[in-house]
Amino acid sequence: MTSTPPARDSSARRDDPRMHTVEMAALQLDEVEASRVLGSGPVQPGGLGARRTALLVGVGGAVGGGLRYLIAVIAPTVTTPTLVEIPWATLWANVIGCLALGALTGVLEVRRAPAWTMPLLGTGLCGGFTTMSAVVVEGSAMLGADFPILALAYGMLTVSLSLGAVVLGLLVARRIARPVADPALHDGSRTPAALPGPGARVRSAESPESPGSPGSPGSPVSPGEGEDR
Cβ neighbours of residue 135 under 8 Å, at least 6 residues apart? Predict the structure, then answer.
C-alpha cells in the first residue's frame, strides 16, 4: 500500500529564494511587454481574433499558391531519365516571395499598417507563394536520378538568393518608407532663420536701417536735433 505525498503549496514554492533565478524570471512571460519583445518599429494594431487571422492567412495562401502554379505552367521544368534541369519556376518563386516578404517587413518596422497586413500579405500571400518543401522534393529527385552536383548547386543557389532577397527587400523598403526629415534641421552648416518676435522691425535688404530709425534717410528730424550745441 502506497501513500500519496502531501500536496505542496505553489505559492510557498514560488516564494522560495532558491527559485529566484534568471531562468525563472525569463519564464514570467506575462510581465514582458510586446514592444520589448519586438524591439524595433511601431507596435502594430492587433485584435483580429483567431478566426479572422486564419481566414486572412487562408485567403492569402490560396492566392499565393495560385500565382506560384501559374509560374510553373509558364516555365515548366524538363525532367527525363537522362536530363534533369534546375526548376527555375520554383527558384524564382522563392526569390520573389522572399524579396516581397523582406520589403513588407521593412515597411512595417517604420510605419503603422492595418492589422490584416501581415496575416494576409506576409504569412498568407508570401507564405503560399514560396515553397521550400518543393526544393527538398526536387533536390531529392535529382539525387535519385544520379545528379548530385546539380542538386547541391540548386540547393545552395536557392538558399543564397532567397536570403539575399530578404535582406535587400528589408533594407530598401526601410529606407524608402522612413519619413523624410527637414535637411535644414540636421545640417550643421545651416540654421533655420529665427522668426521675428512681437514688436520687432523687419529691415529690408536695400536699406540696412529702417526708414523710421533716427539718422536714416527720409526720417523726420525733430527740432533742435542735429544742431551744434
Answer: 90, 94, 154, 155, 158
Helices 88-110, 148-177: inter-axial angle, 10-degree rounding? 30
Contacts of 81 (CB under 8 A, 6+ apart): 145
- All cell numbers assigned to 187: 545640417
Taking the C-alpha atoms of residue 117 and residue 123, their distance in angstroms, rounded to an integer, is 9
pTM: 0.60
- In which residue are the cell numbers 534717410 written? 217
Phi and psi at residue 84, in whole multiples of 5°?
-130, 120
Each residue's pLDDT tens digit, 16-65: 777 667 666 655 544 444 444 444 556 556 668 899 999 999 999 999 99
Q: Per-residue pLDDT tens for 108-132?
A: 999 999 999 999 999 999 999 999 9
Q: What CA–CA distance (Å, rounded) separates 45 from 53?
A: 13
Instruction: Answer positive or negative: Cα dihedral of 53, 55, 58, 61.
Output: negative
